[in-house]
Amino acid sequence: MRTWLASLIGGPVITGLINALQGQLDAANSRTGLRPIAAKEIEAEIEARKQEYLTRRNPAQAAAGLANRIRNLGYPVEIRAAA
């Protein structure tokens, strides 16, 4: 009898608490506007990765690697310095 009574009361009570908490979270998210904040964080991460890529990039090494691949295909390649 106790388990039946607990399941009868527990189901709706727990569901009500979950719905109330979900409503509070939804209200907080709409008030604070987490989407623009998350978008700014993502943009900052992208910019940081771009800067990291640009600092690690070595154009001379990339050109030499590309020239070697072209030479392996049987074509002559001459690398000249930019004017």
What integer is the average pLDDT? 76
Number of helices: 3
Major sheet details: none
Question: Which structural class do you get from the secondary structure elements?
Answer: mainly alpha
Q: What's the SSE pattern?
A: HHH
Radius of gyration, CA atoms, in whole angstroms: 30 Å
Helix content: over 70%
Hey, roughly how much beta strand do the residues contain? under 5%
Number of domains: 1
End-to-end CA span: 91 Å
Q: What is the overall shape?
A: elongated
Uncertain segments: none
> Got a strand count?
0
Layout of helices and strands, plus pairs?
Layout: H1 2-32, H2 34-56, H3 59-72
Summarize the model shown:
This protein has 83 residues and is mainly α. It has 3 helices and no strands.
Overview of this structure, please?
The protein has about 80 residues and is mainly alpha-helical. It has one domain (about 1-70). The chain has helices at about 1-30, 35-55, 60-70. The longest helix has about 30 residues, at about 1-30. The radius of gyration is 30 Å and the shape is elongated. It starts with a helix and ends in an 11-residue tail after the last helix.
